[in-house]
Every structure is written in C-alpha cells, then in structure tokens.
Amino acid sequence: MTGKLRLALLASTMLAGTAAAQDVTLTVESWRNDDLQIWQDTIIPAFEAANPGIKINFAPTAPAEYNAVLNSKLDAGSAGDLITCRPFDASLELFNKGQLADLTDLASMANFSDVAKSAWQTDDGSATFCVPMASVIHGFLYNKNAFEELGLEPPKTVDQFYAVLDAIKEDGTYIPMAMGTPDQWEAATMGYQNIGPTYWKGEEGRKALIDGSQKLTDDAWVEPFRQLARWKDYLGDGFEAQTYPDSQNLFTLGRAAIYPTGSWEIGVFEPQIEGAFEMGAFAPPVAAEGDTCYISDHTDIALGLNAASPNADAARTFLEWVGSDEFASLYANALPGFFSMNSNPVEMQNPVAQEFVSWRENCEPTIRSTYQILSRGTPNLENETWNASANVINGTETPEAAAERLQEGLASWYEPQKN
Amino acid sequence: MAQRKAFRWHIVVFLAPAVLVYTAIMIIPLIGTLNLSLFGKAEGGRVFVGLANFATLFGDPRWSTAFWNALANNAWFFLIHMLVQNPVGIMLAALLSSPRLRMAAFYRTAIFIPTILSFVIVGFVWKLILSPIWGIAPGMLDAVGLKSLFAPWLGREGTALTTLALVSVWQFVGIPMMLIYAALLSIPDEVIEAAEIDGVTGWSQFWKIKLPLILPSIGIISVLTFVANFNAFDLIYVSQGALAGPNFATDILGTFLYRTFFGFQLQLGDPHMGATIATAMFGIILVGVCIYLFAIQTRLRRYQF
C-alpha cells in the first residue's frame, strides 16, 4: 500500500518536473513602470503566442531606484534573467564586472546600425551587450493652427527659422518659443543637443571630440551656443524662472507656437491637447538650403542578458525577438515617440511620430555629444553643458567664454584633450 | 576605617540609554564621515590618502572655486537671516507682548504656522507665487501699478539667493518671535514698573530695559540661526534643484555636498570628496559655535531677579 503510494508520488513529481522544464519563466528587470500595461497587454502575449513554453514576467522598479536596486540584486544573485540597460557607462560597468552577457553573436544585432549599438558596446566597439530597444529624437514641435493663422510654413533653414520666430513675435498673439532656463537641462538637451549636431556634423564631430582632434572651442562647437544666445529674444517673459513643466503647459495650452523638444513628449502632449489644436514637428534647421541635416537620435533603452541566468537559451530566443521587426513595430506603436532603432523602417500610426522618424531617411543620426566617455570625469561635461547652455541663453556668459570654460574643464581630466 | 562608597551603578544605568542612542545615531556616523574623508577611490577598493582630499578641495581651482562660492552664498544667506529674520522676530515679539494688542493669539499662531510647513510645500508655493507665467506676484504688483518692478527673481543670478533667503525668513520668523516673546513675558512686572516710575516708557523702555534682558535669548537665536543656515539644503534643493541655478548663484554648502556625495545625472557620486565637504562644513559650524560660546556667551551679563 505505502509502496504504491510512494511510487505514485514519485511519478507525479517527475511529471510535474518535466512540465516545469517545458515552461521557462523569464523575468525582465526594468525601470519603465509606465510601460507595465503595454508589456502585459501587447508585447508579452505576442511573444508567448509565437513561442510556447517561454513565459515572460515583466517586473519593473521605480526609475529613480532602478540602478541601485538592480546592482544589489545582481550582486546577490537574485536579479531577473533579462536586464533593461541604461545607455553607456551604467551598463558598461555591469558588463565589465561580468554581470551582463556578451550578445555580439546574436543574429538580430545585424538589424542595428553602429550608432544604435554604440550605447551598449565596449569603448572599442568589439563587444555588444544589450539589444537596442528605443531611442528618442530631438526636434521642434509646433502649433499647426497658429502657423496657419499667421500664414507660416515650418522652417527648413536657420534663416527661415528666425524669420518665422520674428513673424510670430511681431504678431504678438503667441509666445514664439516655449523654453525656460532654471532647470538648465531644457537649455542643454532641447537646445544645445537639438540644434548642435547640424554644426558639429553629427557623429563626425562627436567622434573627433572623443579622439581629441576637435576641441569644444572650435567654431563647430561654439556656433550652437551663438544660436542659443539668439533664442533669448523669442522666449516668453520671465523665461529665467520658467520651469520645464511651465514650458510644457505654455505649449499644450496653445500660448506658445514652437516648442524645442524630444519625441518623448508626443505621448504626453496628445492627451493634454485633446484636439484643441493640431501639433506638427520640424527638424532642427540647417544652415543653408540643401545642406545635410543632422538629428540627435539618442539611444535610450535596451535589453541585456544576466550572465548568471539559468535560462540563457530561452532568454536569447526572447532577445532575438526583441531585435526583430515585429517587436519594433509593436513597441513603437504602443509608445509613440519612443522609436525603434531597427534599421528596417517601422510602420507607425501616429502622424507626429511618423514625422519625427521620417527625418531618419535624409538626415544623419547621432547621439548626445556628452554621453559617451566624455562625462566620466570631474568636472562632468554633461552637467557643465547644462550650466553653460542656460548661462548663454540668459546672456550672463558669452558663447565663446562658455565654450572656453567647457574645454578647460574637459581638458583637465580627459587625456586626448590634454596637450 | 571608613568604608569606600559603593560604586553608584544606577548613574551608569540611567545614562546608558541616552549615551547609547546618541553614540549610535550621532557619534559613530560623525566619526565615520570624518574617517571617510581620509580615503580615496583606487583600483579595487579604497586607499588611505591622508589629507589629499582636503588638498584637492582647497587647492584645485575648480573645487576651491565651487567651495568658496558655496561658502560665500551661505554667508550671505546667514547674513540676510540675521539682518531680517531676527530683528523682525524681535519686533513682532515686542508688538505681541504689548498688552493693548487685540487678537494677539491669532497673530502669534498665524505667524508661527509657516514654521511647521514642509520645505517642499513652502518651496513649491513660493515658486508658484513668484512664477512670471502663472504667479500672483506680477498680478498683485500690476494692481497697484508697480508691474515694472516685477522680475523673474528666482531666475536671475543677482536676486535668486536673496529671494530664497527671504522665503526662508518668511518661513522661520516665527521661531525667534516665539523665543523672544517668551523672554519678554518672563521680565518681572516690578522691573517694568520701576522703569515707569523713573519715567522710562515706550521706545526708550524697550531699548534700555527690555533689550538688555533679552540679549541672552538673542544670542541663542543667533547661534541656532547660524547652525540651521549652514546646514540648510532643503529649500534650495526644492526650488532650484541640485544644480542650484542660475549658474550656481544659490549653491550653498548643503547642495554642494549633495551633488558631490550622491552625484547628479551623468556624474557619479563621490563619497570621499562628499565626506571631505561634510567635514569642512562640520569644522565651519564648530568654529562658529565655539566663537559664540567662548567669546560672546561668557561676556553676556546675567540679571538675577
């Protein structure tokens, strides 16, 4: 009697064991808790339907705590199988510690350009450790109704840009441009990094700065500051105390005509505007008609593999899928403004998002100049750039003096810039 | 032969809770911080660097410029409190203690309430009031025909720190007021009556009789203000962010410490330099308090009633 029972128990355990082995559950660590619903409703069902036997558990933490929580989980060996990667140094450090697996041999890596992968590669580019998921593109949003009212066309060149601003200012109904300086990052990210690539020729200038053949005091790097200094006259009254949410509200309430920004605002703005006016987008203007345009297509989010994961094979299957066209299309449509970095163009429904992504066809993409390598030391180039951009717009520092100061700070710790 | 007194264990037992708690949450972290400032980051761990961090803080032009800027801003922040908060607090206390003032309890409560508000609320509310876009400050000035006086004060290098210092004064003026009010109430009526018989009334009574009697309280308030101001951080962080803009015009030691210790955006935190700044702050406050204790408090005359 007991023998039979034992046998039955043994058999059932074995059966259960095989069943569990078939169903692998992969846990995804992420800081995108805003995306929980999108993962559960769209992304996970699509993957699970195509790959029976692999279950995905999306387990996000709060953005501000993510890095700290992830690091301690990785150290303790309790982190999930898949790790959402921050760009550049934060993830590079994990790879160097051996906590992220090398994914260079993943077949879907072929779907991504070198620029797209640069945020998750070793400095020499020999190893890639995360599959790029999304980037954000800088540009200008504008109020289409206001432009129609005043008979204006979205500008293509710098001269047209200022002509449009002058016309809006002269009319006086709208604040020409919504931007403030107290938060500083608006000035740097949506100003300097938005229009800058046009002058330093995108990747060419960015790489030259890293290898030391160009300096921040070169004309290509000072000119964006000169442009920002001109913006001052077109900002609203009291822009020195206008915060980032103030700027957003000025635009969504229809009080400002142009808003220098990044594509991530599309998803935020559309429900706020609620059809009160139509929103359009134009790319950073070029110096002269017909010049090559450059856009900041900033790599922001990727997915990597925990090197200690017991389910590496299943995780790789999932990562291949994340690198596929299907995932790109699902993700980009669920989150308008977060663009897939996949080289194959993605069909998107949102017209403003389509406009942003269409610039990729003619313009050269680059990433924010200060993010790779150049912000490893003290003083931190990114933070200094915030301060310098805000000063230049406020008119408290000349573009030349600001550039000089940045160069001095960078040269004080960065070898290739010392001489 | 007189027997030696038994060791009085109960003293140790009664002191133990306070000593243990204070040691655990104050002394040990303090020593830990001082200790941390003597180390530096190196390949695979930390190494003892002696006073090298202090040499960097005071010797490296970048670090020292930032440090002296923060210290000067902090000194200005303190000066505004001493020149505005404490005199206004004394004046309010003098008015409140006047027996002819009606609704004194209401004024006392109303003026004290901001003190118990959170910094987050105060910073946010004042930022909104002073906002050039949605704020009520431009509208109110417009109503009295003084619109031209309005400027985005929080966004200008010349005015941001003073504005924030005044916001802080607004918040904390209740504390000197309450302390001085209590001191004024404790002046015996006989002293006041004697003064009145001698013909000392009104303002001269305040200057000649009451002020000397409340001087010790003013001394305590000054030192409390000093310690609070040199440890300040919250209001600046809430209203101007960790970068203490515009162009570090509102950067005080607290925000400088925060940025260095915890890092900011792409800048990684540096606990060793952070601890160095914390140690420097500790030194500054220690010196300030010692000056008060040994140079001022010992000379204050005490009156016995």
What is the mean pLDDT of chain B? 90
- Give the SSE order of chain B as H and E letters: HEEHHHHHHHHHHHEEH
Characterize the biggest β-sheet of chain B.
2 strands, antiparallel
The helix/strand order of chain A is HEHEHEHHEHHEHHHHEHEEHHHEHH
- Helix content estimate of chain A: 40-55%
Helix-strand category of chain B: mainly alpha
Instruction: List the total number of helices of chain B.
Output: 13
Principal-axes geometry of chain B comes out as flat
Strand order of the largest sheet of chain B: 1-2
Strand content of chain B: under 5%
Fraction of residues in β-strands of chain A: 5-15%
Poorly predicted ranges of chain A (pLDDT <50, ≥5 residues)?
12-20
How would you portray this structure in words?
Chain B: Residues 71-294 form the ABC transmembrane type-1 domain. Chain B: It is found in: Cell membrane. The complex is a heterodimer of chains A (419) and B (305). Chain A has 17 helices and nine strands. Chain A is of the alpha/beta class and 419 residues long. Chain A has two domains: 17-134 and 298-350, Periplasmic binding protein-like II (D-Maltodextrin-Binding Protein, domain 2, 3-Layer(aba) Sandwich); 137-296 and 368-417, D-Maltodextrin-Binding Protein, domain 2, CATH 3.40.190. In chain A, α2 links the parallel β1 and β2. Chain A is globular. Chain B has 305 residues and is mainly alpha-helical. Chain B has two domains: 9-48, no CATH class; 54-299, Orthogonal Bundle (MetI-like fold), CATH 1.10.3720.10. Chain B is built from 13 helices and four strands. Chain B starts with 8 loop residues before the first helix and ends in a 9-residue tail after the last helix. The model of chain B has no long low-confidence stretch (mean pLDDT 90). Classes of the chains: A alpha/beta (419), B mainly alpha (305). The A-B interface holds A 89, 180-185, 236-243, 246, 250, 370-371, 375, 378-380, 382-383, 386-387, 390-391, 394, 396-397, 409, 412 and B 62, 127, 130-134, 138, 151-157, 240-241, 243, 245-248, 264-268, 270.
